[in-house]
Amino acid sequence: MRLQCTLCGKTYALDSLKYVCPDHGNDGILDVVYDYAEINRVTSPEKISASRENSIWRYWDLLPLKNRADIPKLQVGWTPMYRAKFLGAQLGLENLYIKDDGRNPTASYKDRPSAVVVAKARELGERVITTASSGNAGAALAGMAASAHIPAVIFVPESAPQAKITQLLIYGARVLLVRGTYDQASDLCLAAAKEFGWYCRNTAYNPYTTEGKKTGALEICEQLAISSLQSPISKWLAPDRIFVSVGDGNIIGGIWKGLRDLFALGWIDKMPKLMGIQAEGSAACYNAWKAGTEEITAIEAHTIADSIDVGLPRDGRRAVRAVRATNGEFITVSDEEILQAMPQLARGEAVFAEPAASAAYAGLVKAVHAQKIDRDETVVVVITGNGLKDVKSAMRAAGEATVIEPTLEAVKRLEIRD
Ligand SMILES: Cc1ncc(COP(=O)(O)O)c(C=O)c1O
Ligand SMILES: [Zn+2]
Questions:
Q1: Residue 256 Cα, ligand 1 centroid: separation in angstroms?
Q2: Mean pLDDT on 286-312
Q3: Distance 24 CA to ligand 2 centre (A)
């Protein structure tokens, strides 16, 4: 196992570097590269699919950690992937699946990377762990750090939704509300980590977030194989497309990494097209993809979907590469479309998504209306965060309740039909 600079390709021994390629500074994001022959010697799809470990740790042999004793005890991952027959029928798709990552312990996809980074921090004997976050990564780190009893310092924009700030506080993290944007919080966290020697989980700086994020892709392919009822499970199944919302671009980059690992291992036979969904008001990756470049130009971002409200995506280059290399697409959706998607998902499949997560579904709706998807394609939409994370936005999408007098007459007058 080695670390490899995603910019220059130079490799380094695992753990010989903590964060980025010394030749490329913050642009030199590191990937973990594995000895695939060795992995195939020690494990197999059959072996993993027989595992009773209902968490990301079923993929232990595909993760860059040394000691199982370092794993935080919270159950992360192995979230449900529902066959979405109702919404599939509405959209004219025969094989639509919804992967509900709001079911994680702190209610977002970010539990995956935070669990891996906290395990790494323990392995390295770190004393304090820190991150900047638009909210969810911080909440996830606070939760994982609490379960491992490591102090955490979290930098979030002052404007983050109350529920996310409350999560940080209740888990006992030191919470620093930055009077500024997520981008400013990110720079400040990096500087503080350097100054005080804290272990920094920042997205696209710490190489292990991607490894945590790849586990979603491993689950998608394994769960598809299980739901296809082939037995024994000698191979896993890649869908045709995966829809995922993009802020910094680390989730989509992580999903791509997971798929590349599986393909290199020979455990899947094709690469799905990755569909990156951004808010219209926060579309720096979309802009670069559209312009045919990997160079990301910073924008002033504004969207109701706070988790993807990012002006300068930290892992944008990799997000653009992921979409381009898999023949996927970037799609933008308006705040209105994001809000409309929330009740559609909740009423259609009973999955309650926060705005950044429902954006992925809004992107699918748009793609279907533009006739980009064939009826028989297998499509997975990743729901990255739970709707209770941002009740204010959910209230805007949910409609009004009826207030009544406490009498049966009052109920009768409403003429509610079943
Ligand atoms: C709910 C949710 N969806 C999507 C994203 C986007 O992930 P990334 O910033 O890695 O692109 C985030 C990131 O905070 C998130 O919290
Ligand atoms: Zn480099």
A1: 15
A2: 95
A3: 5
